[in-house]
Amino acid sequence: MTATKVFRFASCLGNIEKAVEQILDEVRTLPWEPMDLDFIKLALIEALVNSVVHGNKEHPDKWVTVCYGVVGGRFLMEATDEGPGFNPDVRKDYDLLSETGRGLLLIRAAMDEVTFNQKGNSIRLVKFIPQAASSSMEANCLRGDGAFPLRKEEQ
């Protein structure tokens, strides 16, 4: 059985820390390599900031929906905003000294897989668990309702 959780929060930067901590509190007991949780935290913060700031333009009446879980030895998180989306294939040159514009670069460096939906308003992050979690560990780690939206190759 795959355990998943879904929640949403209003597009306010102040809500991001609580969202990130909620996710980390549930997956920190998995058998991660020493820096994995730091990388996951970095990617979660960047992805959620992008959803709030760039997707929803910090509009407090718009929501960010987060779905996360452990599936087949992988931690997955998907964040979807109510914004118009963007084309992630249109890349600009990354200016590492700029105050903004490095979020996607950091997310891609921190996670094993990063994909977007066709509209570009939903990001999906995947981090492989080094010692693939057993089904019982997956079930005990996250006690959520609903089904994580699996892709065909994951079924």
In short:
This protein has 155 residues and is α+β, with helices and mostly antiparallel strands.
**Helix-strand pattern, N to C?**
EHHEEHEEH
Largest sheet: 5 strands, antiparallel
What count of helical segments does DSSP give? 4
What are the low-pLDDT stretches, counting only 5+ consecutive residues below 50?
133-137, 142-148, 150-155
Helix content: 25-40%
Please identify the structural class as seen in this structure. alpha+beta
Number of strands: 5
Q: Enumerate the strands of the largest sheet in spatial order, edge to edge or round the barrel.
A: 1-2-3-5-4
Report the sheet-strand fraction: 15-25%
Give the averaged pLDDT, no decimals: 85
Shape: globular
C-alpha end-to-end distance: 12 Å
Cα-atom radius of gyration: 15 Å
Describe this structure in words.
This protein has 155 residues and is α+β, with helices and mostly antiparallel strands. 30% of the residues lie in helices and 23% in strands. It contains 4 helices and 5 strands. The chain has helices at 16-27, 36-55, 103-110, 135-141, and strands spanning 3-10, 63-71, 74-80, 113-116, 122-128. It has a 5-stranded antiparallel sheet with strand order 1-2-3-5-4, covered by helices on one side. Strand 4 and strand 5 (122-128) form a beta hairpin. Helix 1 runs antiparallel to helix 2 and helix 2 packs antiparallel against helix 3 (103-110). The N and C termini lie close together (12 Å). Mean pLDDT is 85; it is low at 133-137, 142-148 and 150-155.
Strand and helix layout:
Layout: E1 3-10, H1 16-27, H2 36-55, E2 63-71, E3 74-80, H3 103-110, E4 113-116, E5 122-128, H4 135-141
Antiparallel strand pairs: 1-2, 2-3, 3-5, 4-5
Helix pairs in contact: 1-2, 2-3
